[in-house]
Amino acid sequence: MDCDELSRRSLLRAIASMLGAAAVPLSWAEIANAGHEAHAAAQLPAVAGFNFFSATDGADVEAIAAQIVPGGDAPGAREAGAVYFIDRALGSFFARMAPEFRTRLAEFQAACRARFGDAHAFAALPSADQIDFLKSVEQTPFFDRVRLLTLLGLFTNPEYGGNRDRLGWKLIGFEDQHVFQPPFGHYDRDYPGFSLDPVKPS
Fold it and tell me: Does any domain span residue 16?
């Protein structure tokens, strides 16, 4: 493993560790409810394509996510299917964020067309133009929200729609296994009938 890969892994680990402190405008009750809804959504059959996004909107959000965590020598947000987590989240357990997200995405797209021409969707721009445009909006609430959702889609449980083939976990060296150690879980070690629900591959 070369120094660049180590630096990338260290950065992703730091990002993953900060997700719990990210500024998501939800109360504890809403977070708990979102957790229940996420679990319920994960039990639904997987549907090919998008449910919340149109094909054009999904392509633009995927392109943004791919610039936030690009692929290359190691997989990034596109390869991990982060956009499918975002699509599922906004259509179910983060639905309260959906109207604002849709409005801000439309504003982002309008600004992109104003700069590059009506025929140019963000997803169709060359990578250099995408990066240049994202630099002009990186301090906006919309970009903050896409960045947070991208990271969640990269590192959360694959059953919620992202982290395809556990690529996000592999990037940071996370192993999906229960550990019976205090302060959590040790009291279940010898409980008869205790079993872990297997993680469904995405």
Answer: no
Yes or no: say if 123 and 57 are a contact pair by the CB < 8 Å rule. Answer: no
Judge whether 19 lies within some domain.
no
Please state the domain count of the chain: 1
Q: Residue 113: inside a domain, yes or no?
A: yes
Q: Does some domain include residue 87?
A: yes
The boundaries of the domain holding residue 93 are: 25-175
- pTM score of the predicted model: 0.67
- Closest among 2, 19, 35, 40 to 154, alpha carbons compared: 19
Of 156, 51, 53, the residue nearest 106 (C-alpha): 53
pLDDT for 129-161, tens place per residue? Answer: 999 999 999 999 999 999 989 988 887 777 767
pLDDT in tens, 25-84: 555 455 445 444 545 554 555 555 788 999 999 999 999 999 998 887 777 889 888 898
